[in-house]
Design a protein that fits this description.
The complex is a heterotrimer of chains A (394), B (163) and C (591).
Chain A: H1 20-28, H2 32-42, H3 54-63, E1 70-75, H4 84-91, H5 93-107, E2 111-116, H6 124-140, E3 146-151, H7 161-168, E4 192-196, H8 197-209, H9 211-215, E5 218-219, E6 222-223, E7 225-232, E8 238-243, H10 248-255, E9 260-265, E10 271-274, E11 282-283, E12 293-294, E13 299-304, H11 309-323, H12 329-346, H13 353-368, H14 372-387, H15 389-392
Parallel strand pairs in A: 1-2, 1-4, 2-3, 7-13, 11-12
Antiparallel strand pairs in A: 5-6, 7-8, 9-10, 9-13
Helix pairs in contact in A: 1-5, 2-3, 5-6, 5-8, 11-12, 11-14, 12-13, 12-14, 13-14
Chain B: H1 3-15, H2 22-33, H3 38-48, H4 52-59, E1 73-78, H5 81-85, H6 88-99, E2 112-117, E3 129-131, E4 134-136, H7 141-156
Parallel strand pairs in B: 1-2
Antiparallel strand pairs in B: 1-3, 3-4
Helix pairs in contact in B: 1-2, 1-3, 2-3, 3-4, 6-7
Chain C: E1 2-6, E2 9-13, H1 19-25, E3 49-52, E4 59-60, E5 71-73, H2 77-92, H3 108-115, E6 132-133, E7 139-142, H4 151-159, E8 166-168, E9 175-177, H5 194-198, E10 204-206, H6 210-218, E11 223-228, H7 236-239, H8 249-259, E12 263-266, H9 267-291, E13 301-302, H10 307-316, H11 330-346, E14 353-359, H12 363-367, E15 374-375, E16 378-379, E17 383-386, H13 387-396, H14 418-421, H15 428-442, E18 462-468, E19 483-490, H16 492-504, E20 511-515, H17 533-548, H18 559-569, H19 575-581
Parallel strand pairs in C: 1-5, 11-12, 11-14, 13-20, 14-17, 19-20
Antiparallel strand pairs in C: 1-2, 3-4, 3-5, 6-7, 7-10, 8-9, 15-16, 18-19
Helix pairs in contact in C: 9-11, 9-15
The chains are: A alpha/beta (394), B alpha+beta (163), C alpha/beta (591).
Chain lengths: 394, 163, 591
């Protein structure tokens, strides 16, 4: 195994490359199958947080026979603590646009959309300019592919892919039942590939430098590099590209303020890791260091000893309560009653045992909520309540 | 005829009249009017041949599609975890103190509305806020007062500064 | 076929079957809540989750299709556990005043709690909503009881095409209804109240009129007249434990007498009268269209007995109002006649007559408030109660319904033909009209299978038929060789389809029957719960049985109707008819 759990910086995503025309032309001179194979052998996994293999996603959509297909770039970056996609779209939009167009070529789609969160409205003028230039070039090389921006309007749940389709179709952004999956039934009921902004930017690296260059970064099951949005109690907040597979202890060495009490990995929907488990925690998709391994959309929020974990959880739950779509019972009612529950325990209106009932409730949400939002509330709730129980109690 | 009616017609001409054009039309009205009045929603329903209740149900799903009358500048201050850790409350107090309004309220002269919002994606430069579509980060009470003064002056100058 | 294992039993089911259905077909009943057969399966309540081996999470069985080799557990420890938690979550946002709730003991939430053995409430917290809207004459909406199953949303949008009931806001603040400040009573609601039929809890209910009817019954200065619609007798039995499809006409008449009504009339009598008026109106319109085109020739003519449908067209297709027959609905006709013809005959001051209609329909509660339904300042009908409300009154009065002898309707507004009976089901009005119209025109009986026009029967959304007129009587020679085209629909989505054709000028029909509720009055909003296609079919068959069991099966052969024209009305569409039996419509706003 070529694993080393050190923190290693990488510099691909924001590296200035002025050869996107060449890369795009080169890609469309290859067969879709070759491109899919390249992606599959790179072992690139979705960078939005869920980690679905990107090559497989493209392959599935390519295999469905339909005259109309779509490529959608998911730029509804709403996870607390995440801000990398905005930087990618403002710094290196061509990499994303190229990734979309290559995907369109591979699966047979002529239309692409960027679903941009409403909070990033100000990105529009520059991005549109880039799109116009990009489309002009596509026309020149006879690549029939257009890209439009679709603006979101302030709804975290629309980052969930099927909710995003609903939103684009002019409806409430409520997740659909899965299956069917987007590769066969996506936007407007058509086969759709939907990729995170960063994922598309990585495909540029892979198509330019070859799968091996990407594969050689990171560790088994977690190949390549990834952008991390670092915030909270850190002397150097910002965006960093790091190889996957580092240990959280190394991460905290680099980014902590010397008094790090816990790190929230993966945003409000991720896990809170207490100091005692930094050593055994690896940041990646699968596989073990000595303990747990956490997938992440790249949000890393550090908390030092001055922070109350009750306040942190309270903040998350309020976020989820407001952002739940309101469709399924476990999430709609669960988020609210969890919030009321911890407040009641903190005020001493309910005894500490109520926390155990609430843990059982989050377990139910994890198993039964309709989509990832409701399912993931349990992550932060249980990791906070189990590790900082004393802070929750009156 | 109400000018909103013309606006809605032209937005529908521009985007189309299918269901999947609903969001851009709602956004277009909000950009201009700052909110969706009942009248606007009924007009949009008529223009797209949709039940008004569906337009309302869709609009109220999205935090940025306000359905109550808003001021000319909508301040949305981020209340999610990092901003909240980094002094959001002091900034909010400074705004409330300066504008003499609470969260969810609009100044009597209709210049500012104050709202809280969920993560704006500027956690590394917390606390952050939006004023209409413009972002301000690394806020402090002093800085936010300065920003508000700037908007007040813009208003006084009668400029058409609506970003 | 697909092989799956459910609870260690290997079974075969067809591809495309959901886990829920597959289990049901093989004797495994999965507790469920928001799912409703033939209405919707959206997987929102999550009660019906099951464990599928290999899955990270549990799956909602009502929306998950089977896959080859699937291994499913419907009652594992995890499944039973989470089901209880979800149920308790539902309860945490639901009032617990069950004893004073109108759905007590008839509530799907209670049934479910009983089924899955709930014995504690572990969770509490906030309550999400408390809007109570009593503005509608037909519906009371109490959102505090709503558990967001969204059945009413599906019915109002996808089945009725009205689009009023929708989810609003987001997260815990989500509520179902018209928009925030809009009142049902001032909305485009058609009062069809199909939403009340599917509501599992007490969030939507019909506006109760039993109190005012009791009050009238106690008022000894009044002559209290009651009439019952054709569909009531085919469903009332269900309230008393009879199988769906049991006709209880006789027991119903007895019960009404026992309740203290002075006269028990039959709306069916007025249904026969409707055929005489509407049939004549139709022939007049067709004659104009053929002999003097361009003048008063609005075709197709559309039936007007369903007040939910009337309100729908007034809102949605105000330009097509002239296509509506001007006939009042049968119970309004009977009410008008009770306070004129009957009052005169019995020498009673009409101001002292109180008319109650027992209807399968809640839109009738709205209909009686329309200003057109008053004559000399007196309402044609004073109160409407639904089949369900009548059931409640009979129980409340301590009447042992099942052991009642068969009674009869009273004269002179009690006799009716089989044609009137079938008004209660989709296609019935059209068939009844054609029985009479064809015979008036040709002098011969309708050439059909036992007087039934088979293509117009059944629960299909849109049904059509053609009837060629050969050798008409001399006065109808203009109809010779004309092929009369008719269409029938029930449910407002079908109505919209047919109206769009009319609007575009492509409608090929002469005559259209439209009923607001899917299946017609047999499954009206005031009928006993539950209503599904199996129950609709049983009620429909009962209605046809009632028709076939009668010797008198054509409206124009009803002797009492003939007498009414002879003694009182004169001729169909005559002056008196226009005054008492016909109406006008109102243009209403679309939203």
């Amino acid at each position: 195994m070529t694993t080393s759990y050190q923190l290693k910086r990488a510099d691909f995503i924001f590296k200035y490359e002025n050869d996107w025309e060449k890369i795009l032309s080169k890609c469309i001179s290859r067969t879709p199958q070759e491109l899919i194979n390249e992606l599959i052998s790179s072992e690139l996994k979705g960078r939005g947080g869920a980690g679905f293999p990107t090559g497989l996603k493209w392959k599935l959509a390519a295999e469905v026979v339909d005259a109309t297909k779509y490529v959608i770039c998911n730029a509804d970056e709403g996870e607390p603590g995440t801000f990398k996609d905005r930087e990618i779209l403002s710094m290196v939009p061509y990499k994303v646009l190229t990734g979309m167009a290559v995907c369109g070529y591979v699966i047979g789609a002529k239309e692409g959309y960027i679903y941009l969160r409403g909070e990033y409205f100000f990105l529009q003028p520059e991005l549109n300019k880039a799109i116009r230039e990009f489309e002009y070039y596509c026309k020149g090389i006879n690549l029939d592919f257009t890209i439009r921006i679709f603006m979101g309007s302030g709804a975290y749940i629309c980052g969930e892919e099927t909710a995003l389709f609903e939103s684009m179709e002019g409806k409430r952004g409520e997740p659909r039942n899965k299956p069917p999956f987007p590769s066969s039934y996506g936007y407007m009921g058509k086969p759709t590939v939907i990729n995170n902004v960063e994922t598309l930017a990585h495909t540029y690296t892979i198509f330019k430098y070859g799968a091996k260059r990407f594969y050689d970064l990171g560790v088994q099951y977690s190949r390549g590099s990834k952008l991390f949005s670092v915030s909270g109690d850190t002397p150097k907040p910002g965006i960093y590209e790091l190889e996957l597979g580092m240990s959280l202890a190394d991460f905290v060495d680099e980014f902590g303020d010397g008094d790090t009490k816990a790190v929230q990995v993966g945003g409000a929907s991720g896990f809170l890791v207490p100091r005692k488990r930094f050593d055994e925690t690896a940041i990646g998709f699968q596989g073990k260091l000595t303990g747990i391994s956490l997938p992440t959309g790249g949000s890393m929020m550090l908390f030092n000893s001055s922070r109350s974990m009750f306040n942190v959880l309270d903040n998350y739950l309020e976020f989820f309560r407001e952002e739940s779509c309101g469709q399924c019972t476990p999430c709609r009612v669960g988020c609210q009653q969890l919030l009321m529950g911890i407040k009641a325990v903190k005020r001493g209106e309910k005894n500490a045992k109520y926390l155990d009932k609430l843990l059982r409730l989050t377990e139910t949400m994890k198993l039964t909520a309709k989509c990832g939002l409701g399912q993931s509330v349990a992550n932060s709730f249980s990791s906070i309540v189990e590790n900082f129980r004393e802070e929750m109690i009156y | 005829m109400n000018p909103v009616t013309d606006l809605i017609k032209s937005l529908a001409d521009q985007h189309g009249r299918s269901r999947h054009n609903l969001l851009p039309i709602l956004q277009g009205v909000v950009e201009q009017e700052k909110y969706l009045s009942e009248y606007s929603m009924i007009e949009i329903a008529r223009e797209l041949d949709l039940p008004a209740s569906e337009v309302y149900g869709t609009a109220t799903f999205y935090s940025f599609l306000e359905y109550k009358k808003m001021g000319r500048y909508i301040i949305r201050i981020c209340k999610t975890i990092t901003c909240s850790m980094k002094g959001k409350n002091q900034v909010l107090l400074a705004i409330q103190d300066m504008l003499k309004i609470g969260v969810g309220e609009t100044t009597p002269d209709g210049t500012f509305s104050l709202l809280q919002t969920n993560c704006l994606g500027f956690c590394h430069k917390a606390p952050a806020m939006l004023v209409n579509n413009e972002v301000f980060t690394d806020l402090t009470p002093e800085k936010v007062r300065e920003i508000l003064r700037m908007y007040m002056n813009k208003k006084k100058e009668g400029g058409s500064y609506d970003n | 076929m697909i092989n799956i294992t459910i609870n260690n039993k290997v079974i075969q089911v067809e591809e495309g079957t959901t886990i829920f259905e597959a289990a049901k077909q093989h004797g495994v009943l999965i507790p469920h809540f928001c799912y409703m057969e033939n209405v919707h399966q959206i997987g929102s309540c999550r009660i019906c989750v099951v464990e599928v081996e290999g899955g990270k999470t549990l799956m909602a069985s009502c929306v998950t299709e089977v896959k080859e080799g699937m291994i499913v557990h419907t009652n594992s420890e995890r499944v039973r556990d989470v089901r209880k938690v979800i149920y308790e979550l539902m309860l945490s946002d639901h009032p617990k005043e069950c004893l004073s709730c109108w759905r007590n003991q008839n509530c799907e939430l209670q049934d479910l709690g009983n089924l899955i053995q709930i014995s504690e409430f572990r969770y509490e917290g906030a309550k999400s909503k408390d809007i109570i809207d009593t503005s509608s004459p037909s519906i009371v909406r109490d959102s505090s009881k709503c558990i967001l199953c969204r059945r009413c949303v599906t019915v109002c949008n996808d089945i009725q095409g009205v689009g009023l009931m929708n989810p609003h806001h987001r997260g815990f603040s989500t509520f179902i209804g018209p928009s925030e400040d809009e009142l049902l009573g001032e909305s485009v609601c058609t009062n069809c109240v199909q939403c009340v039929l599917v509501c599992p809890v007490g969030a939507l209910k019909e506006k109760d009129s039993t109190a005012i009817v009791w009050e009238a019954l106690y008022d000894k200065t009044k002559t209290i007249v009651v009439q019952t619609a054709p569909a009531v007798r085919a469903a009332l039995g269900e309230v008393f434990g009879y199988e769906p499809g049991m006709l209880v006409t006789g027991k119903m008449a007895s019960a009404l007498h026992e309740l203290g009504f002075n006269y028990v009339f039959d709306t069916n009598f007025a249904a026969d009268l409707t055929i005489m008026e509407e049939g004549s109106e139709f022939l007049g319109r067709v004659k104009n269209a053929i002999t003097a085109p361009g003048k008063n020739d609005v075709l197709p003519m559309i039936t007007s007995c369903s007040p939910g449908w009337i309100k729908f067209i007034e809102h949605r297709y105000p330009d097509q109002l002239s296509n509506l027959s001007s006939c009042k609905s049968p119970h309004m006709m009977l009410g008008a006649l009770t306070k004129t013809y009957f009052a005169e005959k019995m020498n009673i001051d009409p101001a002292n007559i109180y008319v109650v209609s027992v209807m399968p329909c809640t839109a009738k509660k709205f209909e009686i408030t329309r200003p057109e339904m008053f004559n000399n300042g007196l309402a044609d009908v004073d109160a409407v109660i639904t089949t369900r409300e009548l059931g409640r009154m009979i129980k409340d009065a301590g009447i042992d319904f099942r052991n009642l002898p068969d009674g009869e309707f009273d004269s002179p507004l009690g006799l009716s033909s089989g044609a009137a009976d079938i008004f209660g089901t989709t296609g019935g009005v059209m068939e009844a009209a054609l029985r009479t119209v064809y015979e008036l025109v040709t002098g011969r009986e309708l050439p059909a299978n036992n007087l039934h026009i088979t293509p117009l029967e059944g629960l299909d959304r849109i049904k059509t038929a053609e009837l060629k007129i050969e050798n008409p009587l001399p006065e109808f020679s203009f109809l010779a060789e004309v092929t009369v085209k008719v269409a029938v629909t029930s449910g407002l989505l079908g109505a919209a389809e047919l109206l769009n054709e009319i609007k575009k000028g492509t409608s090929p029909y002469h005559f259209i029957e439209i009923m607001g509720c899917p299946g017609g009055c047999i499954s009206g909003g005031g009928q006993p719960r539950p209503v599904n296609d199996a129950i609709r079919t049983k009620r429909l068959e009962a209605i046809y049985r009632e028709d076939e069991g009668k010797l008198l099966r054509k409206s124009h052969e009803n002797q009492d109707i003939m007498m009414l024209y002879h003694d009182f009305l004169g001729v169909p569409l005559g002056h008196k008819s226009h005054e008492l039996l016909h109406t006008v419509y109102t243009r209403r706003s679309k939203n």
